[in-house]
Amino acid sequence: MHLRYKDKAQTPWKKMNKFEIPFCVVWSLVDGALVLHCTEVFQFSIGFVTTAFVGHLGDVELAAVTVAENILDTSAYGLLFGMGSALNTLIGQAVGAGQLDRLGTYTQQSLIICGTTALALAPVYIFATPILQFFLHQPVDVSRAAGQYARWAIPRLFANAMDIPLLMFFRGQSRVWTLAAISGVALAVHTVLTYIAVRQLGYGLPGAAVAGDISQWLIVAAQFAYMIGGRFPDTWKGFTMCAFNNIGAFVKLSLGSAVMICLNYEFMAILVAMGFSTAIGIRVSNELGAKRPMETRFAVLVAVSTSIFMGSIFMGVVLIWRTSLPKLFSDSEEVIHGASKLGLLLALTVWMISICPVLSGVAVGAGWQVSVAFINIGCFYLVGIPMGILFGIKLKHGTMGIWMGMLTGTFLQMAILLAVIFTTNWDKQAALTEERMAEWGGKEKLPLMKSPHTDDQMTPALEKMLAQDSKKNVDLLCTE
């Protein structure tokens, strides 16, 4: 839904009745989440396409790519995404408070932090073979093949380090349609490149990895051109040395975000939930920045209930297709049978991890990363992993038992986050937002802007500021 206004005297919330406001909040979350979902699906499908092509080369190649992407890439991306989630909090609250000139500086700080993190992770890719073989006990042939693939995939690691802050920059301003288009084009290009490299030229794993590198850097180049192309005059003022000021506070929040996210990164299996996670994170941070606790509470309720409904749908899809989907990735009857056997447990997992990312999105929007990080540590390290060892090793249930133990930790985490969210005093959280922004954004070097004075305290600062420009059509909800 596109909600635009030209009359500078008109503000949307004042003109809406009590039925229109809930509908607009619901539609903005759903519409924004669907567009974000498309973006996530397109980018995730780059690895999906790679696995589908490489899997038919042989079982070793399939295992190598699966190990490299599910262990190395997912862990690295989870850490990078967690570090970048601090930017999601700060940008969302800055937009809600009308402090648009801070977005560019925040984004540059996040690029520095994520780039440094990628540099620290590069040795893991370089020495992937011994790490997989000696520490994770993977077969020798699989470790060697996965190590070869990982070394060729190092450029993609640095592309992800740039991609994540850029995504946060655009999403925080609800400029998401262009991102979906860029990702869709990149997916098409990647499919062609992978087909040529793997099927036509026979370059195998190195060819597949290079095709992925090119596709990911194509996304970053297009996003960067979009950012500096003059479409964001209020939020992108060019590169500045101020990005290095007070970066320690940003690092502190980023580390908390990373611990919170990477301990819970199995939710990549459900990308609709990723879309809702980002959408609710943006909505919560915007509403808190604008000091609207009632709208925050309503948005959280809508997002959680919608994620439960969507999770139930996906659970049904998994149950129906559990014997057919494995055939896309392998011709081995043993692999297909093993994957189908785990389909029932996968269905339950899909339902749970359709809800958890949305709860994490609420936490990111509210700036609770550090607190939720401790919840995740307790649920997974003190409950999930011990239960997995008990069921899988002690009681000899194998993979099924380990999976059941981890699901126990996921369920506990979900229950605790639900309890925390629905007992939160959102009025207090809205009052703390300005103080939180000053602490994390660097109070001395980047002073907070004063919100325009008005007698109507329910009108958000951003809407009042934009309403002064009668020549512009302004998007107020989660669409361009």
Automatic annotation (TrEMBL):
Pfam families per UniProt: MatE
UniProt xrefs under InterPro entries: MATE_euk (IPR045069), MATE_fam (IPR002528)
Keywords noted in UniProt: Membrane, Transmembrane, Transmembrane helix
Membrane topology designation: Multi-pass membrane protein
Top-level taxonomic group: Eukaryota
Subcellular localization, as worded in the UniProt entry: Membrane
Keyword Transmembrane: yes
Spans through the membrane: 21-54, 74-98, 110-132, 177-198, 204-226, 298-322, 342-366, 373-395, 401-422
GO cellular component, one term: membrane
GO terms assigned for molecular function: antiporter activity; xenobiotic transmembrane transporter activity
GO BP annotations, alphabetical order: xenobiotic detoxification by transmembrane export across the plasma membrane
Broad class of the protein's primary localization: membrane
Similarity section: Belongs to the multi antimicrobial extrusion (MATE) (TC 2.A.66.1) family.
Entry protein name: Protein DETOXIFICATION
